[in-house]
Amino acid sequence: MSTPHRRRAPLVAAILSVCAVVAALLTTALSGPASAHGSVVDPASRNYGCWQRWGSDFQNPAMATQDPMCWQAWQADPNAMWNWNGLFREGVAGNHQAAIPDGQLCSAGHTASGRYNALDTVGAWKTSPVTSNFRIKLYDQASHGADYIRVYVSKQGYNASTTPLRWSDLELVGQIGNTPASQWTPESQGVSIQVPANAPGRTGRHVVYTIWQASHLDQSYYLCSDVDFGGGSTTPPSTPPPTTTPPSTPPPSTPNPAGACTATYRITGQWGGGFQAEVQVTNGGSPIRGWSVSWNYANGQQVTSAWNATVSTSGTLVTARNAAYNGTLAAGASTTFGFVGSWSGSNPAPGILSCTTVA
Ligand SMILES: [Cu+2]
Hints:
The chain is α+β, with helices and mostly antiparallel strands and about 350 residues long. The chain is built from seven helices and 18 strands.
């Protein structure tokens, strides 16, 4: 009777050590560069940007002068870049501000045993140019989907070159709700999604802070992207922006030759109470330098935020005019604009889209 008991201890120890080895292997596999999580890739998050710019050349001493913030991050812990997709915490239960102290927002509160701490360093991180209407692109390698994604931008007056980022520096400028991965855009591995944001009144350097609440478990990603408002523009400065509707020309509501332009409407994603749609405008006639598309919503849908067009609403009528940079269309050319909106009950596409042109 006592023999099996005496044998059990080494057996249990053996099982436990096998478990430990398996756990260690799993941990290594999950935290290695090939693991499947994600990040904001445009505008690039701090560590994704450093990995993108220097991952194949991370020992180049030129980085110290050309990209000093990335240099200090690579020196501090290269795994922060190899694991650009692993900047998350688990079990936060939505209490993001309680979990992450001020000054540690870019490292998710020193997550992963401090691997990402150097991302909190204040200084001249490389920026991506944005305009006040921009979108973040989140790449989700493992198709987790999102319970929600929230996009914040630092308030005008915050000095990203000198001040550690605090929660009170941030303003919510865009968000989406529950969006399963099946509604995201397929990538060769995983999926991606774009979240529109609107941050008027900014100039110069700012930080975009994205919280991605993944759907597979309570896993929250905290991602700092460095941007420059107006320092660069999505419109190349060398190209004179085409004027939209000079007062001397007929307003876009003036009837145009039938078939001059056409518009097609496509819902690209839909979730509880919200949806995202894309409209393609095709110029069927001679070259134009402006367009306007209108439609009526029959079920109370509302456009809440648009990109690549200026959208106005009057009752059920929605009118979208070209942005400064996409009004000019050659014969047969197309362009698209998109928006997020709200709906309830049902969300059918509008039956008729009228498209008018500015010659
Ligand atoms: Cu993951």
